[in-house]
Specification:
40% helix; 435 residues; 6-stranded mixed β-sheet; homodimer; alpha/beta; 5-stranded mixed β-sheet; 19 strands; 15 helices
Chain lengths: 435, 435
């Protein structure tokens, strides 16, 4: 790990010290820098207090070669970072005419007159490198000291900070590191769904010793259990890469039917890619998830290739009116039942004309549970042409968690069906499922 | 700010520096301590490195009266916190026989023989106060220096840390503050929508001086800009309370039409409460948001009182088929247009029978934009009975942000209409809007 350039991350904001906001920025920056071989040695959080910001940046520059700050770059009275750091570097702010013009243009495009207060966002410490921020009004800034240590300032808005880190900060730092590249920390994540963390751990227990010096971590979440294989920098990049690859292959073999992707793969995208490949369309019928499944599917750019839409049938009346669920079925089995979810998925295929359907009905809580159907009871159905599959779950967690897990379960059911049934790719606009 | 006891929170663990784990512990401790009148002045994160832990705790004890550390108390090779801090306090570890017996008993109850590795968890720095941890194997520890400054060590497992903070640490610190109970840090958040951060700041600029010693922070997000009024402990509880109240009233007057709530209020709940109050039902017609608006509305427990459901009309075909949008309207104006959003909202009222409707159509990107209709162009409509209102936005951000902002804009339009139009409360199942 020697040789690696050291970094300290400083996050700035009273809302962080008060615990209002959880500091996700620090984690993001740390992860991205580590993956490129930089070594984050400390993180500090201070409030919107000029002296505290000044002391933290000064101390950070003692401990690390690179200090990255987020927050306090806005146009309001509690934004001090830029002026404090300029002073610490013995320089002053000057107006950047080009930045100002871009800023005015940004407001013009949105049909708004720029408030004069925003002019200060075009002020830049003399000698600083401007890191353009197309997502917001405050650009990133990089200041370098005579001894080569540098301080990078980023806005605290997560979207903007993320874009700047990937598109500006990493290229800037890598170019600066010129040549003496340390072994990067590398990792690979395998994503599973439909299997408990303890079951995952048991399945791969026999592997752990053989993986060394790689480590394996288990990360349970709404979407399922992820497994992260990490090389901590003992191995050079190529060796680490092939060791991680070999480990991933072994783990995938053991967990086979549950692995839907790796790293940032989203099951909604995996399903979407399969649908596109088979030239199939999909629609959703949602009760307890209330639109969440549609939101997941449409979060993927390009999803209009296969997603046509759906029906949120939150009330029983709409289940009948828009999906054709029969009153008798509702009366006999209740809205959270296999019979109803079957009629829902059929109904949405019919009313939308989609090849495939996913339907979800359940009890997300906190109220509405019974001994027979406790909170967390969820029925999901998927249909591909005439074939319908259903599954019942009793999902753990609060209302939000149950809804997230239910949407994931709906996607998982269609995913498994697309993989295991003999789905025939549509040519032009016809296709069928061999049963 | 004088008077309040100062605290620094130090979180320890390589997983935090690597960004694998988001540091929720620091936010939790900060929030709970602030609510009891302690003032968190800084937070630091270091890895599982003895020298780094030692330096951080030593520096923390310079800056703050109380240092709270989490992490590094486990039984494995990378747990150093206890021994490092004992050394820093000039004391040594000794085996606590009672703790050891409790530990063995804990394992026995679970039917497991305790591994010898765990014995070290019963070792305690001489003179430290043991804070019992019924949720795990490592107790909390409190060490006090001759000058009164103290360091508290807690395990990093969130469950255990939380229980210990509430049941042990807060009572310990409050007792230690002995009688001179510090004034709590108090705050109140005002939530606005439909107004830019810079415009909010300009509107209230004249107030800032008069608020002292209260401070005002601006917190922009997808939902709008929040304003947080904070009393930092200079004022006693009652005085702070009335000062914050008075400030909130003045700020609400200035920002009037944009304020939808306070603290954790969600606009979806505010709208829902108004609908319930007027005995009105609502349905949604979503294109670019793909279900997100329905998800927002149904995230509120009890939303079935007023939310009946909706239609996700992602494709143009479904806009026609399920919402009755005319082919000519789509051809002449395009899917993202005032004419189409009007027909969408009308269509969803008709097909669902709901009193009110919200419709959204827009270009969330990254593709699909043009010079005339750039990415971020969104039309929203709301209808109450026969009255329809529409609004056009060009929203900033990436796909996710545009969708979140669009859903919020849809809710905001219905909210404003419910407040400003003369809505007549339905009796039984009929009502109308006086226009």
């Amino acid at each position: 790990m020697s040789g690696a350039h050291t970094v300290e991350v400083i996050t700035i904001g009273d809302e962080l010290l008060l615990g209002h906001t959880i500091d996700t920025n620090a984690a993001f920056i740390s992860r991205e820098l580590a993956s490129q071989g930089f070594r984050v040695v400390a993180r500090t959080t201070v409030g919107d207090v000029p002296s505290a910001i000044r002391d933290a940046v000064a101390a950070g520059l003692e401990r690390a070669e690179i200090v990255i700050c987020t927050g306090g770059l806005g146009p309001t009275q509690d934004d001090f970072t830029k002026s404090v750091v300029a002073e610490l570097f013995g320089t002053e702010l000057e107006l950047d005419a080009q930045l100002l013009e871009q800023l005015r243009e940004r407001f013009r495009r949105r049909g708004i007159t720029m408030a004069e207060r925003n002019v200060c966002q075009a002020e830049v410490p003399k000698g600083a490198t401007v890191l353009p921020n197309p997502r917001g009004t405050a650009p990133g800034l990089a200041l370098t000291r005579a001894d080569g240590r540098c301080c990078i300032l980023l806005p605290g808005v997560p979207q903007e900070m993320r874009g700047l880190t990937m598109e500006q900060v990493l290229p800037f730092l890598l170019q600066r590191a010129s040549g003496i590249k340390p072994h990067p920390i590398q990792y690979h994540t395998i994503r599973t769904t439909g299997i408990a963390e303890s079951a995952v751990a048991e399945q791969v227990a026999g592997l752990l010793r053989a993986l060394e010096p790689l480590t394996l971590a288990f990360l349970p979440g709404f979407a399922g259990t992820d497994l992260r294989i990490t090389s901590w920098g003992e191995l050079d990049e190529v060796t680490a890469d092939s060791a991680i690859n070999a480990a991933a292959i072994k783990i995938r073999e053991l967990l086979d039917a549950h692995v839907y992707g790796s790293n940032d793969d989203d099951l909604a995208k995996v399903v979407g890619d399969l649908l596109r490949q088979h030239r199939l369309t999909v629609a959703v019928a949602e009760s307890c998830t209330g639109g969440l499944l549609g939101k997941r599917l449409t979060a993927i750019p390009g999803s209009s290739d296969y997603f046509v839409g759906g029906i949120i049938s939150y009330s029983d009346r709409l289940k009948q009116q828009l999906l054709g669920v029969r009153a008798e079925t509702l009366r006999e089995h209740g809205a959270v039942s296999e019979a109803v979810v079957q009629e829902m998925v059929r109904g949405v295929q019919q009313s939308t004309g989609a090849d495939c359907g996913i339907a979800i009905t359940g009890i997300a809580g906190p109220g509405g549970g019974s001994a027979e159907k406790p909170v967390g009871t969820v029925w999901v159905a998927c249909a591909i042409d005439d074939a319908v599959r259903t599954r019942r779950f009793v999902l753990p967690g609060d209302r939000e968690e149950i809804r997230e897990r239910a949407a994931q379960a709906g996607l998982a059911l269609l995913w498994k069906t697309l993989l295991t049934e003999n789905v025939i790719t549509k040519s032009a606009s016809t296709a069928s499922l061999v049963q």
